[in-house]
Amino acid sequence: MAADLTQQWSLDPDVLHLNHGSFGACPLPVQEAQTRYRRQLERNPTAYVLYQWEEQFERARRSCARFVCALPSNLVFVPNATTGINSVLRSLDLRSGDEILITDHEYNACRNAVDHVAARAGARVCVVALPFPLASVAPVLERILGAVTPRTRLALLDHVTSPTAIILPMDDLVRELSARGVDTLVDGAHGPGMLPLDLEGLGAAYYVGNCHKWLGAPKGAAFLHVREDKQPDLHPLAISHGFNAQRRDKSRFQLEFDWTGTGDPSPYLCVTDAIRFGDTLLPRGWSAVRAHNHELALEGRRTLCDALCLEPPCPEEMLGSMAAIVLGRDESWAEAPPADDPLMHILYERHRIVVPVLRWPHPPLRILRISAHLYNDPEQYVQLAEALRAEL
Predict the structure, then answer these.
(1) CA atoms within 13 A on the CB side of 126
(2) Which helix (H) or strand (E) holds 266?
(3) Helices (H), strands (E): how many in the chain?
(4) Right CATH number for 31-277 from 1.10.10.10, 3.40.640.10, 3.40.50.720, 1.10.1040.10?
């Protein structure tokens, strides 16, 4: 990638950054926009909150809604996807014996939230084991839909799985689950900026997406999209002024989520700037950014598989801007798993490469997941392959 694009980020040039998927990386122009918003706030906090903040907030909401093909009235901002998922789960009226369906590819934080909510209600968590490696999308649909029972209340499903980086067939899943009377909560932490989204067309009851990852907004910006019929029963984790506000220009759903207490609104406001900036990076805008990152992730995976004599663990069409490879299996972890895979720390300390190495599931596989963005280039995956051959 041209040097002028790599210079749009403030990343340490002495480190190989191959982990955009975990925490993102906010471009410099968006960082500068956040500084401007913060200065406006601190110049006159009272006047800003009373007269300026909300107009900028609504502009950001409209920008985000357009980007993900949603109605602004169905979208609120939350600090991160985990907060949005907790808000939905805590608002469910679960009864003893109800079931929540998830897969064993689910992000650990969200799995913990499901376990907590289910335990308090006496509900059951049904964990669907999805194969990995896998040769096609067919087993994903078959196993998830085959796990539905008359007691299934909700399916929490990753749009892009965190440990294995596979794209689940969400359109088919939402449609088929709905036909069986099951609502879907989509954990779209990696969706915005990686995948073309049409949330109104998808029709999921709930969709949560991070803006700080592939969209390029600052940390602390995410959204929760809720179908209109589900909004009356949904509440944020912090009950605040919106609960009894007398305003009529917004729905109760937005009044409750838009102001949960004093905080820094700048990450949300920057969503407008992040979308606008991303659209300028390549001639065809965001569609070109997504296509570039996808092709680079595939090239990086081919480089690693060729160098380590590994088979790709899933079809190319099931990948977005990330890809995982299976380094092997270590049965010793089943007894006393370490907190982290030591290889991840070795790669950073000896080779200055940031890339996640995960153990998943049990008995654990060793999985390495690469990310691809405009500040990466093919040679960086060659360097990672050389480091892996030296350490494995």
Answers:
(1) 18
(2) helix 266-278
(3) 15, 12
(4) 3.40.640.10
Give the tokens for residue 2: 């041209």
The pTM for the full model equals: 0.96
CATH architecture of the domain with residue range 3-27+283-391: Alpha-Beta Complex (3.90)
Tokens of 192: 């915005």
- Cα gap 337→360, rounded to integer Å: 11
Over the stretch 42-84, which tens digit does the pLDDT of each residue have? 999 999 999 999 999 999 999 999 999 999 999 999 999 999 9
Please tell me the distance from the alpha carbon of residue 70 to that of residue 66, in angstroms, as a whole number.
6
Structure tokens at 177: 């689950």
Query: Which residue is listed with tokens 């299934």?
Result: 152
- For the chain, the structural domain boundaries read 3-27+283-391, 31-277
Q: Residue 154 has which token pair?
A: 């909700």
In angstroms, rounded to a whole number, what is the distance separating the alpha carbons of residues 83 and 81?
A: 5
Neighbour tally for 22: CB within 10 Å: 14
Q: Answer whether 123's CB lies under 8 Å from 99's CB.
A: yes
- The share of the chain scoring above pLDDT 90, in percent, equals 92
314: Cβ contacts below 8 Å, ≥ 6 apart: 132, 133, 134, 135, 164, 166
What is the distance between the alpha carbons of residues 138 and 179, in angstroms, rounded to a whole number? 18
pLDDT digits (tens, 9 = 90+) for 198-246: 999 999 999 999 999 999 999 999 999 999 999 999 999 999 999 999 9
Per-residue 3-state assignment (H helix, E strand, C coil) for 22-77? HHCCCEHHHHHHHHHHHHHHHHCHHHHHHHHHHHHHHHHHHHHHHHCCCCHHHEEE
